[in-house]
Amino acid sequence: MTNDFRHQFWKQQIQTSLIVCLGVMAAAMVMIWIFTYDLDMAIRIRGVILAAGISGILAPLGSAYAIRQNSRHLALHLQYERLANSDDLTGLANRRCFNRRGAARLAEAGRRRGRAQTALILVDIDWFKRVNDQHGHEAGDDVLCHVAQTLIHAAPHGALIARLGGEEFTVMCDISSHAELTLLAEKLRRATEATHIIYHGEAIRVTISLGLAIARPGDTLSALLSRADKALYGAKDHGRNQFAVAA
Fold first, then answer.
1. Hey, which residues are catalytic here?
2. How many Cβ atoms from other residues are within 10 Å of residue 79's Cβ?
3. Which of 240, 102, 245, 130 is nearest to 185 (CA)?
């Protein structure tokens, strides 16, 4: 959930609380006024004032309790949504989330006019199985987290970054030209190559291969992924630690 959603939630809770409190106070005052119609006017007025005071105290307390319960439900909902849409290890969007948000971005790009194009970069960690075999799966997990953080810091603002599974990641973003896309891919490759992780005192250096594809009019997410995947295999076939652009 976004901050806008949280803001809207609290705005709605406060508005509803105010309406309920004012409604309860007004109802209590009207009822006292009606049920004391045969009493002295001064007594009726005091009764109305007393009803307003009591309801003015009890109604906000009830509303505060309701808001507290609703906020707990919201927290649980946000937690479930995070678990359903994020990768447990890296914290990135998972495949399910990527499929939904990626398709939405493609659809939005199809309605948008201008020079910006939607690009997809598939990222695969080179020789990842070798890391697991030589250092163990905990080291492999560290490598996955390391690459995820590298992509987060090197990718442009607003990019959709996800872990599709295993050692494969994806970066979806808007670009203005083919040249900008290749510069971005090289930036991601160099940023990964230039860093390393230390596992039990031993440096593990990591490189990545990348497959690049630019969305075409009418493209589905599946078609875009397929072209990027073919480009990725081309990069791996030519020696890894490089990128290739889909035809």
1. 167
2. 10
3. 245
Q: Is the pLDDT of residue 207 over 90?
A: yes
Q: What pLDDT, on a 0 to 100 scale, did the predictor assign at position 69?
A: 85
pLDDT for 134 beyond 80: yes
Q: Report the predicted TM-score, pTM, of the whole model to 2 decimal places.
A: 0.72
Q: State the CATH architecture for 95-245.
A: 2-Layer Sandwich (3.30)
Q: What are phi and psi of 19, to 5 degrees?
A: -65, -45
Buried b (16+ CB within 10 A) or exposed e, 137-147: eebbebbbbbb
Q: What is the tens place of the pLDDT at every residue in 63-99?
A: 888 888 888 877 776 666 666 689 989 999 999 999 9
Task: For the beta carbon of residue 148, count every other beta carbon within 10 angstroms.
Answer: 20
pLDDT in tens, 107-128: 888 676 666 799 999 999 999 9
Domain ranges across the chain:
3-85, 95-245
Q: Half-sphere exposure of residue 77, counting CA atoms within 13 Å on the CB side?
A: 11
| Residues in contact with 125: Cβ distance below 8 Å, sequence separation at least 6, in sequence order | 131, 143, 144, 147, 167, 168, 206, 207, 208
